[in-house]
Amino acid sequence: MIVDKLLPLIERYDNINQELIKPEVLSNVKLLSKLTKEQSDLSSLVEKAKEYLAVLKSLEDNKELLDDKELGDLVKEEIKILESKKVDLEEEIKLLLIPKDPNSNKNVYLEIRAGTGGDEAGIFVGDLFKAYCRYAESKRWKVEIISSSENNVGGYKEVIALIKGDSVYSRLKYEGGTHRVQRVPDTESQGRIHTSAVTVAIMPEVEDIEININPNDLQIDVFRSGGHGGQSVNTTDSAVRITHIPTGISVSMQDEKSQHKNKDKALKILKARIYEKELEEKMQLESQNRKEQVGSGDRSERIRTYNYPQNRLSDHRAGITLYSLEEIMLSGNLDLVINPLLAHMQSLSVQE
């Protein structure tokens, strides 16, 4: 019963409030920060829980008056209102009871790579990256390009960026997967529609304490950075490739002139990729009993189609179809698809 879940949470919230006025807690910055965060996380749920318990009490009181000849009719109307409010509160509480993703407030590494489609896929990598940058700007997030590899037609083979800001991961966590684009390339003289694909990965930025990598599991190779046309851009071996032997995950970095800086960047991305792989494996394990796996974060999963001739964007997981593709891409108004997608994923969590 929902009440059995709520009472311990209310008790815990009241206990935290008592703890927060104790001098020994106020003088312990680490404990104070931990309790304040827990208090903040519980506050909305506890507020709704107390409101819900008050409605249950009112229902009980009113039902005792049903046989009263003078108040009977008024009580029936009041009970209808309270029953409706009870149902609404139960739905709100179910959402609030969903465990919060520990990564929600983290920054993310955004990685976009060209897939099938040759040059056109590379051009779309650039277009999609610009859309994400515009979206980030609208959210007042900061975008830092970590690594990029351009192709010969103004696009990218791949681009990796660190996006910093408030609730970045919670907004972008379902963007990972295969994004398919259908349009007529500028180089197409016959006006035929081509289908290309790019893959997107969203990786939470992780701290050293969150993922432990044994240095003996790393193979580090240094080599000379290559510029356009194979020419050397540095006179020293500053480029770095780090391979995590147990998983086979490898990261190369050559954007910086300093070998130390390239190694540092490569190690951070390597940790993010390993962390992402662990998240995927955990999510797939938890999803084995589902009838269908939705939003597993698997990069091979085709999640979205961008059809330019029809000005249509379709998200295949939530069944979302929007005829405002141009606005979304040019203005970066990705909330048009992200908001209903998040609502869909949240509803699936409630069902579980």
Keywords:
single chain, 352 residues, alpha+beta, Alpha-Beta Plaits, Double Stranded RNA Binding Domain, 3 domains, eight-stranded mixed sheet, three-stranded antiparallel sheet, 9 helices, 45% helix
Descriptive report:
The protein has 352 residues and is α+β, with helices and mostly antiparallel strands. It folds into 3 domains: 2-97; 108-209 and 323-351, Alpha-Beta Plaits; 210-282, 2-Layer Sandwich (Double Stranded RNA Binding Domain). Helices cover 45% and strands 21% of the residues. It is built from 9 helices and 11 strands. The strands form 2 sheets. Strands 2-3-1-5-4-9-10-11 form an 8-stranded mixed β-sheet. A hairpin with a 5-residue loop joins strand 2 (142-150) and strand 3 (156-164). Helix 1 (2-19) packs across helix 3 (29-63), helix 3 packs antiparallel against helix 4 and helix 5 (119-138) packs across helix 8 (325-331). The longest helix has 35 residues, at 29-63. The chain is flat and about 90 Å long.
